[in-house]
Amino acid sequence: MIKSLRGMNDILREDYERFTYFISLATEVAQNYGFHFIETPLLEETALFKRSVGESSDIVGKEMYQFIDKGENDVSLRPEGTAGVVRAFVEQKLDRAGGIHRFFYYGSMFRYERPQKGRLRQFHQFGVESFGVASVYEDATMIMMIADILKRCGIGYRLQINSLGDQNCMPEYRNALVSFIESIENKICEDCQRRKSTNPIRVLDCKNEHCQSLYENAPKLINSLCKECESDFNKLKQILNDNGVAFEIDTNLVRGLDYYSKTAFEFVSDNIGSQSAIAGGGRYDRLVEFLDGRPTPAVGFAMGIERLMELIVMPEITRKGYYIGAMDTEAVDLVVQLTQIKRNKTKVTCDYKAKSLKNHLKAADKVHARFCCVIGENERNDNTIWVKDLETKTEKVMKLKDF
Ligand code: HAM
Question: What is the pTM of this model?
Answer without folding.
Answer: 0.94
